[in-house]
Amino acid sequence: MAFKTASKALMVLGECVPCVKENASKFRVKRLELDQNLLMYFRKDEFIYAHDPQNQCKTGDVVLIEALPERLTRLVTHKVNKIVYRLGDVTDPLTNKKVVAGKFRDDVEAVNQIFGKKKTAFDYEKALERGWQEDKKDYSHLETYIKYHESGKNDPAAV
Question: Which of 104, 131, 137, 152 has a CA between 20 and 30 Å from the CA of residue 32?
């Protein structure tokens, strides 16, 4: 694994994914791996467990994680340093503009003014903050568990 360091504090960006461990969160880190035959880079996802005792990370958050000087457990090798973006609230660090699917929200609004906005288009100005749908459609705050058998019920907290 490329994350092992002894003296340097290595920081990486990761996206939070559902996890069943206590006091830890699981993160997907995207890496590029060189294929020696094609001389092309391909994406490879690696998963890291980071110490998160306050459970401040929710599924979908982009988080800066820092390598620990020594492992806490066999799996936990990093700690949560800072939540960079909450899910759905990405901001370009250079211009401080909000981004939606690779485009600035201002540009999307300008195109909508020129060609006309659909009635069904999402309005970011009127949108409520993340978390207002907890227990309705957002189950990321629930404690997850591993589902070992099919019970006939669709439990959103099961992984």
Answer: 104
